[in-house]
């Protein structure tokens, strides 16, 4: 394996030598206050040999903004940098309408910590018999595209308003997200070689699919496409990765029709956001899908779902996405065995199917499902 790939797999090498990890917990809004404590319980339930955990409780969110006028306190960012090996973020209730002075704290956190890759695995539970087999990884560029939030309104001489939004795609951001995609494709392939072929959901060589719309946006998406493609020539190991392309609209269509055709998909920020949320439908619920915001020096695990204010405080929230996000956090910190234990425990509980939350058609509570995962560990 090349030094480039080896370095990506050994991210946080100094961290993985630690016997105690300090994890920042940022529940934020709504059901985040229920699923992040559930993820903490699962981390604490890991068996002998796993690291011990210290937890630092930190504030952020729209509810905090309503009380204090600040959505992401500087103290939260500074304590993450100074005290924590990684963090778990719950959910944020960003309103759909404009609120003066407010911007999403998770978007701000990604920028402040340079968490440039949003890594979102979407996979069928091992042993699951129904539905189409899914084992794909969506890697979303996390810092650019329309999410730079440079918007303005102009008024024409006749009084008509026109809204503009600037979109930024840079060679720098496209190159490093491309590298992440190639590295993760090789890392996933290395793990598959340890799995019996009959149990593998993905049967082909490591494959990166570049998602774009350069047939229309030839300048911005064209730069993204060309830059990611050029990454393949940077490392001899990358030559073993097959490269494919999909226009974003056909990607959505094929993802639902033929999810088994995709291994690693890499996309600009907006497309990655849309296809990763849509992909959650392939495995049954947003409550199952984890993510990790990954940079070169820090990782924040984050369930893909929102704050779900309609069920907040009722004990109905599915903790699986947060629990799997805790596994992703450990995986990127170098604790792959512990991460695998968490993934396997979750899969075992889901496959039994007798204890699931309402989003999956059951009536189990957040605590009951968390208890079952802890027992399985």
TrEMBL record:
Q: InterPro entries attached here?
A: IsoCit/isopropylmalate_DH_CS, IsoPropMal-DH-like_dom
Name the GO cellular-component terms.
Answer: mitochondrion
UniProt keywords, alphabetically: Magnesium, Metal-binding, NAD, Oxidoreductase
Query: Which top-level group of life is the source organism from?
Result: Eukaryota
Q: Which GO terms describe its biological process?
A: isocitrate metabolic process; lysine biosynthetic process; tricarboxylic acid cycle
Molecular function terms from GO: homoisocitrate dehydrogenase activity; isocitrate dehydrogenase (NAD+) activity; magnesium ion binding; NAD binding
* Domain Isopropylmalate dehydrogenase-like residue range list: 22-373
Its required cofactor(s), as named, are: Mg(2+)
Q: Which family does it belong to?
A: Belongs to the isocitrate and isopropylmalate dehydrogenases family.
Q: What is this protein called?
A: Isopropylmalate dehydrogenase-like domain-containing protein
């Amino acid at each position: 394996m090349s030094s480039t790939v080896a370095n990506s797999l050994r991210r946080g090498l100094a961290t993985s030598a630690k016997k105690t990890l300090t994890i920042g917990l940022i529940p934020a809004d709504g059901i985040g206050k229920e699923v992040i404590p559930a993820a903490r319980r699962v981390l604490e339930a890991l068996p002998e040999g796993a690291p011990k955990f210290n937890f630092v409780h930190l504030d952020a969110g729209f509810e905090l903004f309503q009380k204090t006028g600040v959505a992401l306190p500087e103290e939260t960012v500074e304590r993450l940098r100074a005290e924590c090996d990684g963090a778990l973020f719950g959910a944020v209730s960003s309103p759909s309408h404009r609120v003066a002075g407010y911007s999403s704290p998770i978007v701000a956190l990604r920028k402040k910590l340079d968490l440039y890759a949003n890594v979102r695995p979407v996979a069928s539970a091992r042993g699951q018999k129904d539905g189409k087999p899914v084992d794909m990884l969506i890697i979303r560029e996390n810092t650019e595209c329309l999410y730079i939030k440079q918007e303005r309104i102009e008024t024409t001489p006749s009084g008509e308003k026109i809204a503009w939004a600037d979109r930024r795609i840079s060679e720098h951001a496209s190159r490093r997200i491309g590298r992440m995609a190639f590295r993760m494709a090789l890392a996933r392939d290395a793990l598959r070689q340890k799995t019996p072929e009959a149990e593998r959901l993905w049967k082909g060589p490591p494959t990166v699919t570049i998602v774009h719309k350069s047939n229309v946006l030839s300048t911005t998406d064209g730069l993204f496409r060309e830059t990611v493609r050029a990454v393949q020539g940077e490392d001899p190991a990358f030559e073993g990765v097959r490269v494919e392309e999909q226009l974003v609209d056909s990607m959505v269509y094929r993802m639902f029709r033929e999810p088994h055709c995709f291994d690693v998909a890499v996309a600009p920020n907006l497309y990655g956001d849309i296809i990763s949320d849509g992909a959650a439908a392939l495995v049954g619920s947003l409550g199952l899908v984890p993510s990790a915001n990954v940079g070169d020096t820090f990782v924040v695990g984050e369930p893909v779902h929102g704050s779900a204010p309609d069920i907040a405080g009722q004990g109905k929230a599915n903790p699986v996405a947060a629990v799997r996000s805790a596994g992703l956090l450990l995986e990127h910190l170098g604790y792959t065995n512990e991460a695998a234990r968490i993934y396997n425990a979750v899969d075992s509980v889901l496959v039994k199917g007798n204890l699931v939350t309402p989003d999956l058609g059951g009536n189990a509570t957040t605590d009951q499902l968390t208890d079952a995962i802890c027992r399985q560990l």
